[in-house]
Structures are given as structure tokens and as C-alpha cells.
Amino acid sequence: NGRISNAVTEVNAYATQIADVNQQIIISESGYGQPANDLMDQRDQLVNELNKLIKVSTTTNSDGSYNLFIGTGQQLVVGARANQLTANASTIDPGKIVVGLNTAGGSQEFPESMISGGELGGLVAFRNVYLEVAANEMGRVAASLALTFNAQHSLGQDLLGKASVDPSGFVGKFFTIPDPKVLAGSTNTGAGAMTATFAAPSAPGAPNYSGNFSTNLTNSSYQVQFGVTSGAPLTTPYTITRLNDNVQVASGTGTTSVSFDGVTL
């Protein structure tokens, strides 16, 4: 998050410098009718440095100034005007800093796929492809180990022959783990709230009861989206999407609980 914020600050500084040089080129060429070669060389160097931070494309105006674009054509520099990128908390995940563009209506958050090339694109790609996946995988290993160990442990007896189900028996949950994290989007409306819990591990079943307990947990995050309600209780349609492969794992209306991939929401 810190390095993404720093890179955005550097991008904005280069964009401002390029816009200033554009203004000097416009004045020089319109006032003297001569190519401002030194200024153009300086601007090209600034564009090269900017490309180390984020991939940009350029077009040349009739007055000799440059326009710079990022992503799918978003304007970063237009002649002598520089737009500013922002580094703000994501509307979906407040713990994640995402890149946006400062507009008259506020910061417009960019899809992370639009941030490509250079240090900034590399940081965003590293976080999406490796860091978050690794963190989720570590969480899956820890949760699966705790859940399956507890399930097997609770089937045993202590030295006095007492089981975990006895009123004075031993504690069956050897490990304790927190519930899955539920993050509310900052643009959510209404007073609804969600909680998530891990589903019980699957036990070996008929006809062959040998084997181990297992879970259906994945290393993915999930996105829950609601549609338009008709006004009646519990009639709002919802979908739940697994984000690592964009597969819809659940949908419906009128329910207070749903289970998928080893989690109950």
C-alpha cells in the first residue's frame, strides 16, 4: 500500500512537470516560430522516466504539446493541463489502496487491470497474482488444519474414558480460529450485516469409512452483490462470485443463510 501511494505521488509529479514543459513549448513556438528542441528533449526524458512508473501512450498536438494517456485511454496530461491520480482505500476492501483519477465529481476508482506497466503496474500485479493468493492459501492451510484436527480430536476419549460430548468431558476444539473475514463496501446502503463461519469438515462415509476429514475451502476471496428489492422482506436477489476464477457459486432470494466452498454466510 505504501509503495503504491509513493508511486502515484511520483506519477503526479512527472505529469505536472510534463504539462509545464508543454506550456513552455507552446509559448516558445507560438512566440518565436522556432522548434523548442531543448524543451522537447527535456519532455521526452520526463516521459521516459514516467514510463518507468506506469505505461503511457502519447499523441502530439498541432501546437507541439503532448497528450499522455494511461490504461484504456484515460487522460493523464492534455497539453498544459495535468490530471492527478489518487491513491485511496478501495470501496470494496478498505484495507487495500487502489489507484484512481481525480475528477470534478471526486476520485474515480480504476479497475486494477487498467494499471499496467512500470513500477506501479508491477506492484498492483504482484499484489493480485501473488501476495493476496499466498495470504489466502496460508489462511486455507491454517483453517483446514485446525478444523480437521478438531474434528478428529473430538472423536477421542481422555484417560478417564470421557468424550468431548459428555457434560464433563474434554474440550473438543483443540485449536481456535477466527471466522472468515467479511468486508462491507464503503458504498453499501441499508442496515444489513453479514457474518461468515466455517462449515464442519466432511467425514469419510459409506461404504468405506476409512480416510480423513477434509474441507472444501479454496484460496479465493468472494464478492456478494445484491440486486433491487421489491420491498417485501428477504426478496432481494443476490449472487456470490468466487473471484479467482469468476465463477458464480451461489445465488437466490429470500434466504438468511447460504453455504458454499466450505463456508456458511
Describe the protein in words:
With 265 residues, the protein is an alpha+beta fold. It is 31% helix and 20% strand. The chain contains 3 helices and 13 strands, in the order ααβββββββαββββββ. The protein has a 4-stranded antiparallel sheet, covered by helices on one side. The longest helix is centred in the middle third of the chain and has 36 residues, at 118-153. 17% of the residues are buried.
Give me the secondary-structure topology.
Layout: H1 2-32, H2 37-51, E1 57-60, E2 66-70, E3 74-78, E4 81-82, E5 85-89, E6 97-103, E7 106-109, H3 118-153, E8 197-198, E9 222-226, E10 238-242, E11 247-252, E12 259-260, E13 263-264
Antiparallel strand pairs: 1-2, 2-3, 3-4, 5-6, 6-7, 8-13, 9-10, 10-11, 12-13
Helix pairs in contact: 1-2, 1-3
Structure at a glance:
The chain is of the alpha+beta class. The protein is built from three helices and 13 strands; from the N terminus they run ααβββββββαββββββ. The strands form four sheets. Strands 1-2-3-4 form a four-stranded antiparallel β-sheet, covered by helices on one side.
- Shape call: elongated
Helix content: 25-40%
Q: What is the N-to-C succession of helices and strands?
A: HHEEEEEEEHEEEEEE
Number of strands: 13
Low-pLDDT parts are none
Q: Give the terminus-to-terminus CA distance.
A: 29 Å
Structural class category: alpha+beta
Give the helix tally: 3
Which value, in Å, is the CA radius of gyration? 27 Å
Question: On the 0-100 scale, what is the average pLDDT?
Answer: 91
| Major β-sheet annotation | 4 strands, antiparallel
Strand order of the largest sheet: 1-2-3-4
Q: In what range is the share of β-strand residues?
A: 15-25%
